TrEMBL record, chain A:
A Pfam family that the UniProt record links to this protein: FecCD
Protein family membership: Belongs to the binding-protein-dependent transport system permease family. FecCD subfamily.
GO cellular component: plasma membrane
SUPFAM superfamilies registered for this protein in UniProt: ABC transporter involved in vitamin B12 uptake, BtuC
Localization annotation: Cell membrane
BP GO annotations: siderophore-iron import into cell
Organism: Streptomyces albidoflavus
Protein name (Swiss-Prot/TrEMBL): Iron ABC transporter permease
Automatic annotation (TrEMBL), chain B:
Keyword ATP-binding appears in the UniProt entry: yes
Signal peptide range in chain numbering: none
Pfam families: ABC_tran (PF00005)
SUPFAM superfamilies referenced in this protein's UniProt entry, alphabetically: P-loop containing nucleoside triphosphate hydrolases
Keyword Translocase: yes
UniProt keyword annotations, A-Z: ATP-binding, Nucleotide-binding, Translocase, Transport
Any one GO MF annotation of this record: ATP hydrolysis activity
Lineage: Bacteria, Bacillati, Actinomycetota, Actinomycetes, Kitasatosporales
Name of protein: Heme ABC transporter ATP-binding protein
InterPro entries, A to Z: AAA+_ATPase (IPR003593), ABC_transporter-like_ATP-bd (IPR003439), ABC_transporter-like_CS (IPR017871), P-loop_NTPase (IPR027417)
Highest taxon above the source species: Bacteria
Annotated coiled-coil segments of the chain: none
Residues in ABC transporter domain copies: 28-261
Amino acid sequence: MTTTAFRADLAKGGPQDESPARRSPGRARRLSLTAGLTLGLIAALVLLCLLSAGIGAYRIPIGDVLGSLLHRTGLGGAELDRVGESVLWNIRLPRVVLALLVGASLGCAGALMQGVFGNPLAEPGVIGISSGAAVGAVASIALGLTFFGNWTVTVFAFLAGLATVLLVYVMSRSGGRTEVVTLILTGIAVNAFAGALIGLFIFFADNAQVSQITFWQLGSLAQATWPKVLAVLPCALAGLIAAPLYARQLDLLALGERPARHLGVDVERLRIVLVLVVALLTAAAVAVAGIITFVGLLVPHLLRMAAGPGHRFLVPGSALGGALVLVAADLAARTVAAPAELPLGVLTALFGSPFFFWLLRRTRRKQGGWA
Amino acid sequence: MSLMAKLLGTARTVRDLPAAPAPGTVLAEAERLRVRLGERTVLDGADLTVRAGQVLALVGPNGAGKSTLLAALAADTPAAEGTVRVAGRPAGEWSAAELALRRAVLPQAATLSFPFPVEDVVRMGRAPWAGTEREDEDEEAVRAAMAATEVTEFAGRPFSALSGGERARVALARVLAQRAPLLLLDEPTAALDLRHQELVLRICRERAAAGDAVVVVLHDLQLAAAYADRAAVLHGGRIAAEGPPAEVFTAGLIGEVYRQPVEVLPHPAGGTPLVVPVRQR
């Protein structure tokens, strides 16, 4: 009905365009770029996982790793000797799988959170969600709670994480938007409070619990086992599967809340669901690996620079990228100072913090100051 | 599964697509509308009828309630008293998805949290039609909207790299691409140069000629007089006068509402009223 009106305007001097069905060249280029990036990320991830499974005090050649994997899945290949088989399946693989899950969860949570807050500096670690979830986890360790068996730490991390996301969200929003300063300051306050609570639990914990808590607070995958993988798998998978479904709505949310609503997005529900998903993903990561910061900040940013801000690529891409970064970081953590092991959280913060500095300065420059 | 999909908000509900309205159909109306923002009563008994095939200009001094009235018609701001109906149904009864097929809204300021390219921003206007039969129009609608607002040449540039006026036109292109029968535009000409102001109002006229209803908040009374079928003058939260601009724009009414003496002269060619402030010489 309205096409005729536009036709008239087009005829007056609009540029001559190709047939409407054809995609514009810019879009086609971007589609092939994201497809290429996705394939590249997957290939790098598979390769790195195989490498990581082989490298360590007991070396297993990559061919043998592949052989053993094929053997167990019944596709041929060959079993390793008893020690090799045990090292690979009881020590290395659970650790690699856990790194995959934790990295994917953190990367994806970062991308989602930046979308929900409409703020590129939002990240579970920076704004205190990770420490909030950690309070729950530490509480369950220190108080010796076990009502959910193997899942106890995860459940507590989730509940505390959820409460923290809600708190940060309510505190840092005004007039439908989140300003950078408010968000970061809220993060400082939340981190400080969570730190105090964790300190309090440590004070009341006995020695064995204290060493367990400190070890885990630095962020580490050193105690990876299959039961731990199982403990976080439901949380991580639920979050990772749900997240990409909201990619299109997140794109619209970039316009602001009202315009997104004008385009048919049920903004209230979207926010609630995504806050839940972020809490799930963060809890999954924190429960098994402790506090690992900056992965959720770094990965979505690099991908946004490479492929643009569209969430249909960004959300799953950040999960892949997060997994890649964490598998690599964990490999480095356990090999660079072998036989000692660097805490993983320390390593990611070492590389992540300078990046955060740079990002802050860039954001400041673009806004022309904070006040 | 369907419960899961519903819970996750991804279910493809079959929605009734609105049919093209006949000229003169009432697409939105406010009746004795009272709206409060915080402590302040911004609208106090406003009545307005928006008809298909017409351009309706909302004019009035700062703080008279123009944007609030537009927001109420857009179903953004709930009525404290009175009713707002969109397409014959109380605004609050529509879901966001249903409303998106029936009205498009241009906000006063166009912001974007992430640097999407211009073409992607315009394409966001097509989101309400995803999963419906009119999804096939997407490419055509985006292309036509970009051509009409003259933004095609920077289709690939990131939105954040544009000037204020360019952003305003991209935002308008997004609203046009939505192809809803009711267009609510809040100061679409504010950031624009002379040529593009005229261009935007011409687009409004074309949309009205094609059968849509266009409500546009304007500060420039000349533009309102030249392009609107009807003008509503807001004053202190009420409609002080409503009708064809030639009847509404009188020196007495405009002078009183704006607290600024004016002369109203007929344009030498065509006779549209020219509103000129009385200035000391």
